[in-house]
Amino acid sequence: MLKNILSISGRPGLFRLSNRGKNMLIVESIADGKRTPAYARDKVISLGDISIYTDEGDVPLWEVLESVKVKSNGEQVDIKSIGNDAAVREYFAGILPNFDREKVYTSDIRKLLTWYNQLLAGGITEFKPEEASEENAEPEA
Predict the structure, then answer these.
(1) What sign for the dihedral angle of Cα 89, 94, 95, 96?
(2) Around Cβ 112, how many Cβ atoms within 10 Å?
(3) What is the pLDDT along the chain (141 residues), one digit of tens a residue?
(4) Bridge partners of 97?
(5) What do you get for the CA distance between the two ends of the chain, in Å?
(6) Would you list the DSSP string of the chain?
(7) Fewer CB within 10 Å: N-end or C-end of the chain?
(8) How far apart are CA 11 and CA 95, in angstroms?
(9) What sequence ranges are listed for the domain DUF6852 (predicted)?
(10) What is the rounded distance in angstroms from the CA atom of residue 106 to the CA atom of residue 64?
């Protein structure tokens, strides 16, 4: 699911890949549904390609988002009420206890929580990719 959700540098919010054009992508804002082009010069990254550094390696973003969903009971996270940077890092340690404290900045954690809230507001509540969902499915008898 996250493969089609994009973050574009310099643009607020998240976007859903809608279509491809010549030398550009047509993206749709998750917040308001407005379609705009993203050109080759724009830095576009798929949320499906993002991972979080941990002490043992990298954890895919979808796993972290699933953990946030469990911790917040599927509700949006009130980032401002969490408090200062130390409190944000402590909150994130409850989600991903072994995150690399040197490589993962507080701004990264705030961005991740903001993305989580934007995805929920856009009606996206399933973060597992189809391949992971199929691997975890029960075999048919």
Answers:
(1) positive
(2) 22
(3) 688 999 999 899 999 999 988 889 999 999 999 999 999 889 999 999 999 999 999 999 999 999 999 999 989 999 888 889 999 999 999 999 999 999 999 999 999 999 999 999 998 888 888 765 555 545 444
(4) none
(5) 28
(6) -GGGEEEETTS-SEEEEEEEETTEEEEEETTT--EEEEETTS-EEEGGG-EEEBSSSEEEHHHHHHHHHHHTTTSPP-HHHH-SHHHHHHHHHHH-TTB-TTTS-HHHHHHHHHHHHHHHHTT----S-HHHHHHHSPPP-
(7) C
(8) 27
(9) 50-119
(10) 15
The single residue listed with the structure tokens 């976007």 is: 15
β-partners of residue 58 are: 53
34 and 13 both lie in a single domain: yes
Are 54 and 43 members of one domain?
Answer: no
